[in-house]
Amino acid sequence: MLRKLQAGDLLYIKSIDRLGRDYAEIIEQWRYITREKGVDIKVLDMPMLDTTYCKDLLGTFIADLVLQVLSFSAQLLYSQNKNAQDLIRQLTIQGLRIKS
Q1: Under a CB-based contact definition with an 8 Å cutoff, are residues 22 and 72 in contact?
Q2: What is the per-residue pLDDT across 11-32, written as a single tens digit (0 to 9) for each?
Q3: pTM value?
């Protein structure tokens, strides 16, 4: 998809975590798409993350701030889910051993 995007295109994504699995990857992809490729992004579940709106300094600042917070939240949620999945897996293995 990244190869097909051209300057002036508009990319719709459902959620910010579709850009990456962790904070650094989300920020890196956002900057690559918006700055290097010159593509606008609209995040459907977070209307404040819309690069087509308010391209002035204040609008860019607000979008960057929201992006930072949501990227951090996405990474935190992902790591918590991964830890929860690991815990469930470990408990299931222990339960199977006890039954054997």
Answers
A1: no
A2: 999 988 888 878 888 889 999 9
A3: 0.67
Q: What Rg value do the Cα atoms of the chain yield, rounded? A: 18
Cα 1 vs. chain centroid, distance in angstroms? Answer: 16
State how far the Cα of 16 lies from the Cα of 70, in Å rounded to an integer. Answer: 7
Q: Which structure tokens are listed for 13?
A: 């994504």
Cβ–Cβ under 8 Å, residues 52 and 42: yes
* Statement: 10-99 belongs to CATH 3.40.50.1390: yes
| 98-to-79, 89, 92 alpha-carbon distances in Å | 29, 14, 10
- The per-residue b/e assignment along 1-21, b for 16 or more CB within 10 angstroms, e otherwise, is eeeeeeeeeebebeebbebbe
Which sequence spans correspond to the domains of the chain?
Answer: 10-99
